[in-house]
Design brief:
Blueprint lengths: L1 E3 L2 E4 L3 H12 L4 E5 L12 E3 L3 H6 L10 E9 L5 E12 L2 H14 L3 E4 L2 E7 L2 E6 L3 E4 L1 E4 L6 H6 L10 E9 L6 E7 L2 E8 L3 E9 H4 L5 H7 L5 H8 L2 E2 L5 E4 L9 E2 L2 E3 L14 H20 L6 H31 L1 H13 L2 H10 L9
Helix pairs in contact: 1-3, 1-8, 8-9
């Protein structure tokens, strides 16, 4: 089968689903390709800043119907047994990707947006047109949004440079039954990594951590690693020892790359993790993925309406908007990561935050965005 569409979205994660809803609301013909079926769990922190709230409202989404937890405070703990807690300026909510992605997918179905469950095997751009081949179909489209995640065979096909670099990180996530405050998101530092903890819907506790693979492979398995590494953070030990897993086994992904990625590559507008909006110390990647989908959708609409007069200007505009919204947040996340991986600097940092808590509020503001508003 060969099909034509105005805009083709590759990947049905948070960014891809959001972009499809936005473009459809603007009256554009959209096709979304996703290799997996819904619902399914994903390795993710599952905390979303309230900066997305006005945008979700504009999209006509009723997130409260999913019974999220409402989060208003952040607790940070160090591997040295120290902690600091503060209010989150905007607050946020806890919602699993299992529930949120499935809800957005259902909205696409209800709004009759075309979804193809298939795997992309090739992308070619020539004569101002994309030709995208999947296992079973071929699609032609003037514009493509890349929303297919952290690492993919598509990146190999596109010869993206970060795929040639080994990543030292492993990510692990599971849901638990545990006594933990609904209003709190906590970030726990341990040797070689960080762990985020917060409640999601149905009184489930999401625990997701990022670990250095070199540290991890010294241990026999996940349980051994947790007991010998994560448990050195006393706060994290208390949470994990008193939590009952609701998964048969944790979900893991390796080769999690925090390398810089291009927002536009081979004329594809990249959104979400495909554009590198993933760093764990940048506030939250879920809100940034949603925001990038919004920016790409608005600019594509302007291009199709001839308010942007060329593909070149479209790509330059998206890159400029992307840098303005996300570049400094990602830079701050990398800086914090380097700081906290150094034991001496970690001690200095946490002591400074305890003595001057306003510094933490400043960091939060620098790593979070402002409420996302829509002009069109």
């Amino acid at each position: 089968m060969q099909a034509e569409t105005e805009i083709l979205i590759i990947g049905g994660g948070l960014a891809g689903l959001t972009a499809a809803l936005h473009l459809n609301k603007l009256g554009l013909v959209v096709t979304l390709i996703e290799k997996d079926t819904y619902p399914h769990h994903k390795v993710c922190g599952e905390y979303i800043s309230n900066e997305v709230a006005p945008y979700f409202e504009w999209l006509g989404l009723d997130i409260e119907s999913l019974a999220p937890t409402f989060i208003s405070e952040l607790l940070f703990t160090s591997n040295l047994g120290k902690s600091i807690q503060t209010q989150l300026p905007l607050g946020g909510f806890g919602l699993s990707r299992y529930t949120l992605d499935h809800y957005l997918y259902t909205e696409l179905i209800n709004r009759r947006i075309t979804i193809i469950h298939d795997r992309v095997v090739d992308i070619n751009f020539a004569n101002n047109q994309f030709k995208v081949a999947t296992t079973n179909h071929t699609f032609n489209a003037p514009y493509v949004i890349g929303a297919y995640g952290k690492r993919s065979a598509i990146d190999v096909k596109l010869n993206r440079s970060f795929m040639n670099k080994q990543s030292p990180f492993l990510a692990v996530k599971a849901h638990y039954q545990a006594n933990f405050p609904n209003h709190l998101v906590s970030l726990h530092n341990f040797e070689g990594g960080y762990c985020g903890v917060s409640k999601v819907e149905n009184d489930r506790l999401n625990i997701c951590y990022l670990a250095n693979y070199e540290h991890f492979k010294k241990h026999k398995n996940l349980s051994d690693f947790q007991e010998n590494v994560l448990y050195k953070n006393s706060y994290l030990k208390d949470i994990l020892e008193n939590a009952t897993s609701l998964f048969d086994a944790p979900i893991t992904i390796s080769q999690v790359s925090f390398e810089r990625k291009e927002p536009v590559y081979n004329h594809i507008l990249m959104v979400g993790d495909t554009a590198g909006l993933i760093h764990p110390l940048c506030g939250n990647g879920m809100a940034m993925a949603i925001h990038a989908a919004k920016v790409a959708s608005e600019l594509l609409h302007q291009r199709i309406e001839d308010k942007i007069n060329s593909r070149e200007v479209l790509e330059e505009s998206y890159t400029a908007h992307w840098n303005n919204e996300f570049k400094s947040r990602l830079k701050m996340g990398r800086m914090l990561s380097s700081l906290l991986r150094n034991t001496k600097l970690e001690s200095l940092a946490i002591n400074t935050l305890i003595k001057m808590p306003f510094v933490l509020s400043t960091i939060i503001k620098r790593t979070h965005g402002k409420p996302i508003t829509v002009s069109s």
